[in-house]
Design goal:
Two copies of one chain form a homodimer.
Chain A lengths: L1 E7 L3 H12 L1 H8 L2 E9 L3 E4 L6 H9 L11 E2 L3 H7 L4 E4 L11 H10 L3 E4 L2 H18 L3 E2 L2 H4 L5 H5 L7 E7 L2 H10 L5 H10 L8 H4 L2 H15 L9 E2 L7 H9 L2 E11 L5 E11 L12 E7 L3 E7 L4 H18 L2
Parallel strand pairs in A: 1-2, 1-5, 5-6, 6-7, 9-11
Antiparallel strand pairs in A: 2-3, 3-4, 8-10, 8-12, 10-11, 12-13
Chain lengths: 344, 344
């Protein structure tokens, strides 16, 4: 399969994918019959370049890694915005990696919708559009034939959706629970060493693990968006992030964290989704006490993990990175491989 | 794809697979285009029945579950042994689930080899033949075109090989470590509650988790066979179980276990495999101290887990059951799906 790729967004995640494309060019060809060229890159900060004969991806990475724009790279056209790039680049695979917005999903939602309506394949790590518009986007994908993949929307490259496309395809899932937000897990882990919430939060902010406004993480919004995606994908629900029962960690005291440890366990911010007997799907996010024997209890720092309760295999837990340039870039690589295989 | 299945062995694992085949018949058809019928069952205790029009699988499960033989089931031929069944049943998929032997791999080795030489697909959970004869069997598979799958040889149905066929196919693996033997992990977990090795071993024997002769488990032989399989599959080695550097848990004292906990960690019996810089592959099994922050440290009881260190995704850990009728049966289902897909 030959992919002609348009990058919509070229920040950390896009460049992580670019790194892997460049490193693994021969392996992709040999193992999966995948050829690729990049026909366009459009980024709100770095600028835009389009060339149907191929854009120099290594040069684009080099320039943006040093904070420079990409419009000096040779190309047939420059300066097109994201939607123009999607419409005019001739790409068959749109890699949507702009910023996250879980209020209305924009601008990613319009990018993905436009691409799918043109029958293009889309790989994205952008959780906003998937959390908010899953049903509509899947419907368009199904109608127009372009595949939509979003492995990176929950655990970055650590497999979730591809796990059930592949090795666990023969299982059905009854419930899911897990640690899907690295920032809050880091804060709770550090509090377990006897430090207060505000002290740890300030340090996480200094180290770049938490935003200046940490609301998205500490109030559970990020986890709620991911819980919605899991509920909608695995249980056929149509739950928005705002409808997820949600409690964050900003009210957790050091005393509660230390008490949990004394009782032989840990408090973790869990995202959960399950289908009730009468068919209703529930998604929720809340700090939860887990006994030490639970595989999720020992997940420390920014590591993420999900436990799936399945019919054939009991509980299966996957543990891995939930963020990072290379790990999130890998999600897009896995999605590209998955698309190629689904069309083979 | 239409599978005509011959069961070679019809003990707990074979019946676990049979349960899932019967439960998921419609799903297999709808999701993967898989039709199946069982054309033969041959078991050293339950007897043998062959019918090219299909053997009544539900009846075979019912009879063997009540300790009865299967030769009363209607069928064209009765009483054939395993090799005759493989040669004469016309099956295109041989499910090899006889007993484990890690000295010479027999009789599973001859069953698998015979089937592969006839170009048949083979799914097995039998670690002996895979640990001892991986290279030869893979070569025959490759020459004759029948696929060889053995998901269940390491973690029962919890995905290992199918994980890297599917979602992690874009990663390369640098090293593997994990808990691959439930009995020893149960013993070490219980010793962590302050009980002696001999007390816990006796209880595990009473409960059926440990054999009367526990050597295979407690001296690390089972784990060594699995380490050899991992080394041979992931790193292209040709290591026999007897060549795995191996230390079991029979020499571990209660004092050592409690000391490990006092130091904020756990002793676990780890199987490990990796490729050294100059290309040599190493496989070993030994009791190892892990800090509490390691995802493997909290894996208690009979649960198994493997951590893969990868180039693109850092460390990925999969945790799940390592034994059981249904979980091991699922390995064969996953293998059947994988074979169907690889031929689609």
């Amino acid at each position: 399969m030959r992919f002609e790729i348009a990058f919509i967004g070229f920040g950390t995640v896009g460049r992580g994918f670019a790194d892997l494309l460049l490193e693994k060019r021969e392996y992709l060809k040999k193992a999966f019959g995948i050829d690729w060229k990049v026909v366009a890159i459009s980024d709100i900060r770095a600028g835009s370049v389009m060339d149907s004969n191929g854009v120099d991806l290594a040069e684009a990475v080099r320039l943006t890694d040093s904070g420079k724009g990409i419009e000096g790279i040779p190309g047939e056209r420059k300066g097109l915005d994201a939607l123009e790039t999607i419409r005019e680049s001739g790409a068959n695979l749109v890699v949507e990696v702009t910023w996250t917005n879980i209020k209305d999903g924009e601008p990613g939602y319009s990018h993905i919708k436009t691409a799918l309506e043109m029958g293009k394949h889309v790989a994205t790590t952008n959780k906003g559009p998937i959390a908010l518009h899953y049903k509509e986007l899947m419907r368009i994908s199904s109608e127009k034939g372009g595949k939509l993949r979003f492995e990176g929307a929950v655990l970055s490259g650590t497999p979730v959706f591809n796990l059930f496309e592949g090795p666990l395809a023969g299982c059905s899932v009854a419930s899911i629970r897990g640690i899907v937000n690295g920032t809050t897990n880091l804060i709770l882990s550090e509090m377990g060493k006897g430090r207060t919430y505000s002290e740890v939060l300030r340090e996480a902010q200094r180290m770049g693990y938490a935003e200046a406004d940490p609301t998205m993480d500490v109030e559970g919004w990020d986890a709620a968006a991911k819980a919605a995606i899991l509920a909608n994908h695995f249980f056929g629900a149509d739950i928005k992030p705002s409808a997820v029962a949600r409690k964050g960690i900003s009210g957790i005291t050091l005393e509660e964290v230390m008490d949990a440890i004394k009782k032989g366990g840990r408090i973790k911010l869990l995202a959960r989704a399950w289908k009730e007997d009468r068919g209703d799907v529930v998604a929720e996010v809340s700090p939860t006490w887990l006994p030490e024997s639970d595989p999720l209890a020992s997940i420390g720092g920014v590591t993420n993990a999900l436990t799936f309760s399945t019919d054939a295999l009991g509980e299966v837990t996957i543990v891995g990175l939930g963020a990072g340039r290379r790990a999130t870039g890998y999600a897009l690589l896995a999605d590209m491989i998955s698309i190629a295989r689904s069309l083979a």
